[in-house]
Write a structure and sequence with these properties.
2 domains, 23% helix, alpha/beta, seven-stranded mixed sheet
Length: 315
């Protein structure tokens, strides 16, 4: 799998950063899931190799415009691209998402030639499973922002198995049904009497991954527990430590707070996103730069990266 950061800014689009959206592209590239869909996300997609026809699920963390306003336009363009042959789409998010989309599409008389299924997170729950199939499971967890906001986790359910072909050749086993039996973990007896156990010919080539999509929040113990031992935590970093009071008043995080979450949760990698345009190097009114945000976080949690629009991260 790989992640493509389509928008990494906060509040409003800037020349350098669009607003929030991350695309998850699965290994066979047959499907794409989006996490948030801020204004002009479809424009960002046009600058990548992602095909809108392959987007099949969208997870919306909360109903602030910089995470939501791109959704109606993307859905409409997706319909125009492939018409009735377009695959259906599932959208998940907080209460009000369904009425927002219905009203927007109805008032604008927008025709969508495919089915949209909306799953609303129950307001009386703090956490739970929002989606599950044979490959993975998506959980949600309420975090602390000015409106109802959720973090999501994606967890793989299967381990990929790698068959040790070279070892099979050492035993002079010919390709065919015996390979299949061993790969499935079976025990076989060869014509010469040798007994082979499948577990000796198969290794787990990749452990199950856990990715956390953190969204807008101030420091949250719920998020620490939710992200425990994750391979990757994507966390907002709207402010620097010098503006901690401003961050707290607006229910946002500093780079240091994001790093504390990563450290306490014992994640393997932290990626900072939702960066305020005030930290752009061209902004002469602020002495703190984006590089300073990264330094601030790395002093607490060294395995930290700063997201940029169109950055690709392989899982």
């Amino acid at each position: 799998m790989k992640l493509v950061f389509l928008g990494t800014g906060s509040g409003a689009p800037s020349i350098k950063r669009n607003v929030s959206s991350v695309a998850l592209i699965f290994s066979d590239e047959s499907k794409v899931w989006l996490w948030d869909c801020g204004e002009a996300t479809q424009h960002q997609i046009l600058r990548t190799s992602i095909k809108m026809s392959k987007i099949e699920k969208i997870f919306v963390s909360h109903l602030h415009g910089d995470h939501l306003f791109g959704l109606p336009g993307l859905l409409a363009s997706r319909g125009l691209a492939c018409g009735k042959n377009q695959r259906n789409i599932q959208i998940f998010g907080p209460e009000g998402l369904d009425s927002y989309l219905k009203d927007t599409l109805d008032i604008s008389n927008t025709y969508i030639p495919y089915e949209i299924k909306i799953t609303v997170i129950p307001t009386n729950t703090k956490s739970g499973v929002i989606y599950e199939d044979e490959e993975c499971k998506v959980n949600y967890c309420e975090i602390i922002h000015s409106i109802k906001t959720y973090a999501f986790s994606l967890e793989e359910k299967k381990k990929e198995k790698h068959f040790l072909i070279e070892k099979a050749r050492e035993y002079r086993i010919q390709p065919g049904p015996i390979y299949k039996s061993l790969k499935e973990g079976g025990t076989i007896q060869l014509p010469d009497g040798r007994v082979l156990h499948g577990k000796n010919f198969v290794i787990n080539s990749q452990k199950r991954k856990k990715i956390i999509f953190g969204s807008d929040t101030t420091f949250s113990k719920n998020l620490v527990n939710f992200a425990r031992d994750a391979d990757l935590l994507i966390h907002e970093s709207t402010f620097s430590i010098k503006e901690k009071e401003n961050a707290l008043c607006n229910f946002h995080s500093t780079a240091g707070m994001a790093a504390e979450t990563a450290k306490n949760a014992k994640v393997k990698q932290l990626i900072l996103t939702h960066i305020s345009s005030r930290y752009n190097l061209k902004n002469k009114n602020n002495r703190v730069s984006e590089k300073d945000l990264l330094t601030e976080a790395r002093e607490i949690f060294p395995d930290t990266l700063l997201a940029e629009d169109f950055m690709i991260y392989h899982i």
